[in-house]
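Entry 14. Two folds queued back to back today. First construct below, sequence then structure tokens.
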Amino acid sequence: MKKSYYQLYTKLYDDYYLWVNFMNNSHLILNRELHDLYSKADDVENLKRQHTQLFDTLEKNGFIINDDFDELAYIEFEKKRTKFDNSLYHIIVNPTLDCNLSCWYCYEKKQEKSAINNEVINGIKQNIITHDTNSPFRTLKLSFFGGEPFLQFDAIKNIASFASDFCEKNEKSFILDFTTNGSLIQKGQLEAISQYPCVFQITLDGNRKQHNKIKYSKDRQTDNYQLTINNIKAILDTIDNSFVAIRINFDAHTLSFFDDILEDIKSLDRKRVKIILKKVWQVNEALIDKDILLDTIQKLFDQDFIVDYYTQGGVCFAEMLNEVVVNYDGKVFKCTTIDDFSDRNSYGHLDTETGAIVWNEKITTLGYDLTKDKCKQCKMYPSCLGPCTLHLMNGDETCFLESLNLSLSEYMMFLYKNEMIRKKVYEQ
């Protein structure tokens, strides 16, 4: 037996230490005596003789593993297995690149009056059939992005209805997914999709004053903040099988007024809502007050919210073989976080007659693994898997830890608390 390579510890308080195993996201708190016993144990077999209970606990939680288990080889195998897994087919549709709001930080080029047409809609439907014929899947995930997808709700309803019927007829699971600003959602629209399992990601950019300053309509009079809050509640009330990820994009000032947001969301069902905290990418990390950030996270934990703050895990959807982004004009892509859905970034196009994706030479980049050795040697590698491949192709090797505004110890504590909240919410 041997110690897992992918584990770290940090001192909590007094004589207690937090141990984190990044292979399986397990956590242990050991007192000084047990910590010293384990941390200084070069021979884990001897540890078993010294303290059987401690040894058994460590082994059960993956801190101690078999001598012949090659952890790195396992990680690399799982990466490849996930990339080429065909059990899930994920179609992301941009029904428009237009948006009713104007956010200063948005990386996309707004295309006013852009809209998906019936030819592309029918092509997407045919693609579902064609793809299943060539590579049968068990689950279809249909995501709508943009732009603001609810500007083209008729198209959404049309495609979703077909996809759901197809899955039901062929005994497949179906998931409907939206990334939206949440301001345009109507009660009737929610009722029209209420029979589907639905996941929403909806953004709040601060309290009412800040949100409306950033996410403003042309008339600058609409209270988009209250509209969004009301619609989050309407989603949860109308669609029984729904989940909402509230993404709070913060800058140097947003979190100072977080109590206002917390007051407006505190009544939401913790099992059906999580909070994503994401720094606006144009804002320098040095401008973020760490104490305020930590205080915000703790306030969410105190209210039993599960928090996603640069929580790593899994292979990016853009690197998966069974994933495609279909733009309103039929061009296809692999990633949604690009500034220009044009030929320059396109991976090909949708053949609207056959439903086939006609890939260009860029698709060969899908198989690239540019992960650096320094990442593979990092104790956190199993949960992170290194920077985005697209970033690496562009020479950006930035580690996510550099964007945290937290020390490694603080981040480990965040992971532990978050896991405790998750267990409290879902296992009680």
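Second construct, same run, same settings:
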Amino acid sequence: MILKNCTLLTGNIGEVIQDASIVIKGDKIVDLVTSDRPFEKHADKETYDMQGKIVMPGLSNPYSSFYISELGLLNRLLNSDLPSYEKFSKIYGYSEKIFSNHDFFEKLVRMAAYKSIYNGLTSTVIAIPVSKNLPDMNSSSLDLGIKIKYSPVILSENGINKALKDELLANDDISSITLLGIWGLENEDYDFLRTFMDKGKRIKILMVDFNQEDRYSMLKHGKGLLEILKNQNILSKKIDIVFSVNIGQDLMDLFATKGIRLIKSIRTEVTEIGFSKNILDLLGRGMKIAIGTGLIDYSLFEEAKALLISEKLNGKAKQSIIYNEIERTIFMNNYQFIGEEFGTQLGKVAAGADADLTVLNYKTGKYLFKTNTPFTEIALKVGCDVDIYGTIVGGKVSMWEGKILQMDQTEMIKIQNEINNLSKETEV
């Protein structure tokens, strides 16, 4: 396969190549041809003319809770008086029951996969409640047209039972777990977490509202959560904090010194929790931050817009700094974060790289970038001047001209109706 006449974002910050041709063989990019070097030696391959198209490394989503979006749980709990953590715990309890239905779970995954593809995603980490009937967790689900890694969510407010610990340690397909309610862990649970990380795996900690979880920790253990985390010596470079709402300066300092990484989901925080305007404080401490779609939908472009707007309203940084911030978080850190989950390097368009690509259509012809932050420019234009045209995953076309190739629209509507009906019938 050859994609010719591309406006190409290579994955190197600020680098744009006009009139490039990408040569794909199998699941790899085998050659990158610029206008000054012909590609006649590859003339026998199927060729797509990308005139007016922007091609970039396939978008990677390091954190998505797809089941919450698909089941309409946010809308049903949006106006509840429950505190943020209690709301998340209630959602988890409901979802755990739903996920015991294996067939239904597979339908949820399929819908999430295809909606992710529609939004230009080629790889994603999906947080799923621990369930008896979870399918085999494969590192790549190319039958769905997208690379998927599952991160089992554990409601840990009452500790983690031994059987589950043994199962998680024995499953080599699991590269990470996600903890909700870390304040409830006992000493032996921390021993398990250290063993889990020693096997090269990662831990994601949902910090929905640190102030609330700190109070719960005091009630259960007689100690604040910060003190426990320090004493247990659990924090390391193998931990990602998700959301990180209401964390103070002391906790920021601790995270920074331990090499902790953060995954922010701005729209989820603003909608369901309460957004903490601390990204610049965190970046100033040298912390790495990635952006996930969280509980809302599957659009990293919309997350980028939300980040831009929230930081602009914060008023602490110049526009150029904010633009560079978005470029760094999504265009660099996202690929690093999720690449570690899959055990491969993502985010580059170069010979030898995985053939994971997002194709965008610029409605008025060839796009000429005006800044050295091209991703940010695109993010602000998606939905207006730019739309998502196609996705290529592992050298295979998953979506083209806005159409999913693995499933027709009639079947998608049927599955969506089944999901909606079950959701309505179930108490939250």
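Quick look at the second one. The longest helix spans residues 319-342. The chain has two domains: 2-58+353-404, 60-342.
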